[in-house]
Amino acid sequence: MSGLPDRCREGLAVYRVGGAVRDARLGWPTVDTDWVVVGATPEEMQRRGFRPVGRDFPVFLHPETHEEYALARTERKSGHGYTGFEVHASPDVTLEEDLARRDLTINAMAETPEGELIDPYGGLADLQAKVLRHVSPAFVEDPLRVLRTARFLARYAGLGFAIAEETWALMCELVESGELSHLVAERVWTETEKALGEPAPAVYFRTLQNCGALGVLMPELVEDDASLGGALDRLSRLPSDLLEEERPRWRWARLVEHLGEARQAALAERLRLPRSYRDLGRQAALTRQLRQRATPDADDVKRWLDGIDAWRRSERVQPLIALLALDAPALAEVLARAWRAVSRLEAKSLMAEGFRGAELGQELARRRCALLDEELARR
């Protein structure tokens, strides 16, 4: 069942752990399977053909399945933030000790390769009760767990899950302790990007807002609670033909489209956002500004097209028009027609007429505005 050859299993206790165990009992598909090995040393794992990949603790890739096998370990708080831990991995660490360091009880279940459940912290009962509960008081040692708990709620809120009161108290305690400020931007963004791909991403941000974490990690979003509420409502309103992998990026764009340029830039820098997220957020903001004009004229539309770099990146136009259509369908229809007309005008046709250099650019801009004027006059 583990895919581990018999020669590699001899003398080792191997257990499936974490998300694969949890989601299988929820009836959800499992993509990745993680394993814990009890009673082994790094040298033994390498002798059996496993390839070491862990930097902070011993993790190995199986020589055939390439699944991750981690040696059982314990952790002790030694500093601030997500990385402030001393890791102890040795053959004498038990499975129960390894599971005790995990964040939530539903993530602290294991099973043998034959499917026998090992559940020392009541994860199955919490799964059935639809409760997100911390494994131990050590929950407060890792500030990233505030974000992870919010993300799991965003995943399972549709099933009726809730955060246990005592776990919520620890999340608030972590915020008040100042530990969140020690999280590096990359870790905050990794959890946030994952949350944007969950079934209810708004729940993630609202949970962080309610415990005070959002104001620490993304203060630009909470300067106006009413605006935040509107932004969270927009997360479920996206162009209908997006691919699944595109949805996190578009959800982020909807979340930040109301922010001014300075606040968007500050938030992007704070989280070290990927370029694709920064760009789409800015394009969505420009589209929002165009929609908010009572009757956009040709100059307004041309500035929008210039702002989204439509002349070089024409693939951006239709999705943004589809975004506009969610709130202003009539304007979107006019823009779609105007874009079809103006995109047929090519610089090479003007060059054939003798335009060159600066004059070519000026004439191209003039004719584009004329075409836009003509189409907008027909609305």
Automatic annotation (TrEMBL):
Cofactor: Mg(2+)
Ranges for domain Poly A polymerase head: 15-133
Leading EC class: transferase
Residues annotated for CTP binding in this entry: G19, R22, R102, R148, R151
Pfam families membership: PolyA_pol (PF01743), PolyA_pol_RNAbd (PF12627)
GO molecular function: nucleotidyltransferase activity
Alphabetized InterPro entries for the sequence: CCA_bact, NT_sf, PolA_pol_head_dom, PolyA_RNA-bd, tRNA_CCA-adding_enzyme
Start and end residues of each tRNA nucleotidyltransferase/poly(A) polymerase RNA and SrmB- binding domain: 160-221
Gene3D superfamilies: Beta Polymerase, domain 2 (3.30.460.10), cca-adding enzyme, domain 2 (1.10.3090.10)
Residues that bind ATP: G19, R22, R102, R148, R151
Known catalytic reactions: a tRNA with a 3' CCA end + 2 CTP + ATP = a tRNA with a 3' CCACCA end + 3 diphosphate; a tRNA precursor + 2 CTP + ATP = a tRNA with a 3' CCA end + 3 diphosphate
Keywords of this entry: ATP-binding, Magnesium, Metal-binding, Nucleotide-binding, Nucleotidyltransferase, RNA repair, RNA-binding, Transferase, tRNA processing
EC number: 2.7.7.72
Nucleotidyltransferase in keyword set: yes
Binding locations of Mg(2+): D32, D34
Keyword Transcription assigned: no
PANTHER family registered for this protein in UniProt: MULTIFUNCTIONAL CCA PROTEIN (PTHR47545:SF1)
Similarity comment text for this entry: Belongs to the tRNA nucleotidyltransferase/poly(A) polymerase family. Bacterial CCA-adding enzyme type 2 subfamily.
Function as written in the Swiss-Prot or TrEMBL entry: Catalyzes the addition and repair of the essential 3'-terminal CCA sequence in tRNAs without using a nucleic acid template. Adds these three nucleotides in the order of C, C, and A to the tRNA nucleotide-73, using CTP and ATP as substrates and producing inorganic pyrophosphate. tRNA 3'-terminal CCA addition is required both for tRNA processing and repair. Also involved in tRNA surveillance by mediating tandem CCA addition to generate a CCACCA at the 3' terminus of unstable tRNAs. While stable tRNAs receive only 3'-terminal CCA, unstable tRNAs are marked with CCACCA and rapidly degraded.
Protein name: CCA-adding enzyme
Organism: Billgrantia bachuensis
